Amino acid sequence: MSIYCVGDIQGCGDALERLLSHIGFSPSRDTVYLLGDLVNRGPESAAVLRRCMALEGSLLPVLGNHDLHLLAVAHGVRPPSRRDTLDGILQARDREAMLQWLRRQPLARQVAHGGGHFLALHAGLLPQWSVQDALGHAAEVEQALQGDALPAFLTQMYGNAPAQWSADLAGADRLRVIVNAFTRLRFCTPQGRMDFDSAESASQAPPGLLPWFDTPQRRSAGTLIAFGHWSTLGRLDRPDLLGLDTGCVWGGCLTAVRLGATLAEREFFEVHCPQAQAPGR
Questions:
Q1: Beta strand pairing call for 266-272 and 224-227
Q2: Share of residues in the chain with pLDDT > 70 (%)
Q3: Partners of residue 31 on adjacent β-strands
């Protein structure tokens, strides 16, 4: 049995199939954790969701910002973007099955492996959160996604404020901060105030900002965190960090890592992808 993590697919279904073939994936033996943004911008979003649904239990995703955007567009609370490639889902006969499956997926997964645990998520964690805090906060959003008031939640989900966590936050503000951290975070201040304007590489942090994973006294430090979302960061391989968004949809690669007998033992795989979107357009 092998455990893999795979970076942002973004509707590049052919790349996913080639990567699964490249790693010799066996659904009866292996488990693949998909780090969010399953859909959008690439040409085969519906195929990606159908593949995940068919292999439920072996392909295990977390939700990214594009996956939440799909739910918001489908429920009429967010207009589609001109760069969206979601019509294959929105006009499909099995549209509702795909949307219902998607809303049941978590924001984070804690996985036992190699005598320890790792955490799979899409974007990042705030420095004030321990791993257990993060899992609890993720569960709050997951309850809203799976509840009867989903359209109301999606309507209130968008916005950049509040930009900083407080345990006193409640209601829509609290859920919005949690969603933004898990699905949009790249840079923040040392105190955890989130920035949503910058998408540069980690080495080009704007003044006063740090990559979320380099904030001092980050309470989740020491637990391996596998994440995506940050294509300009590229592949990141540190003892307690795995960044796996390598720009598949932009003409980069789709990347997987196989964890070895321990969390420190890793083997990387990648397939090159045709460019489906041009940055800046």
A1: unpaired
A2: 99
A3: 3
- On the question of pLDDT at 191 being above 70, the answer is yes
For residue 224, what are the contacts with CB-CB under 8 A and spacing of at least 6? 116, 117, 118, 119, 239, 240, 241, 242, 263
Terminal-residue alpha carbon distance, the chain:
42
pTM: 0.97
162 cis-preceded (ω within 30 degrees of 0) = yes
Rounded to an integer, the average pLDDT of 44-70 is 98
DSSP annotation string for the chain:
--EEEE---TT-HHHHHHHHHHTT--TTT-EEEE-S--SSSSS-HHHHHHHHHHTTTTEEE---HHHHHHHHHHTTSSPPPTT---HHHHTSTTHHHHHHHHHTS-SEEEEEETTEEEEEESS---TT--HHHHHHHHHHHHHHHHSTTHHHHHHHH--S-S-S--TT--HHHHHHHHHHHHHH-SEE-TT--EE-S----GGGPPTT-EEGGGSTT-TTTTSEEEE---TTT--EEETTEEE----GGGTSEEEEEEE-SSTT-EEEEEEE------TT-
- In contact, 20 and 54? CB cutoff 8 Å: no
pLDDT (average), residues 85-106: 98
Residue with tokens 């979601």: 86
Tell whether the model's pLDDT for residue 52 goes beyond 60.
Answer: yes
Phi first, then psi: give them for residue 191, nearest 5 degrees.
-90, -5
Say which amino acid occupies 111: V
Amino acid residing at 142:
E
Which pLDDT does position 1 carry in this prediction? Answer: 87
pLDDT at 276: 86
Structure confidence at residue 280 (pLDDT): 60
Q: Taking residues 146-163, what's their average pLDDT?
A: 96
pLDDT at 281 over 60: no
